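Same chain as my last thread, 103 residues:
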Amino acid sequence: MTARVEQYRLNAAKCLDLADRSSDPESRRSLLAMANAWLMLAAQRAKIIETASYSFTCPSCQSAMVRYNADFDDGRALQRSYQCEKCGFVSVSWDTQSTRKRA
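reply #2:
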């Protein structure tokens, strides 16, 4: 698993620990909700990593990069962002076919 997924799980564990030690019912509910949110983020991130195609290597550390965003710019060209799971380097690529279709 990646460091980010592990950090999310650690954050959830900390929230659960604080909830166990809290005597205020409202604080406990809030901490349990936060723990649940961290676990959901961890599960989402793990699924993204599991299904992502590793077609790029990081120019900084040579690790696999994961696509984490794809969106259209104002000119309707598709922009894809990739991030290295190891060092955090971000790379952006543009789908030139989308630009050609627009013209």
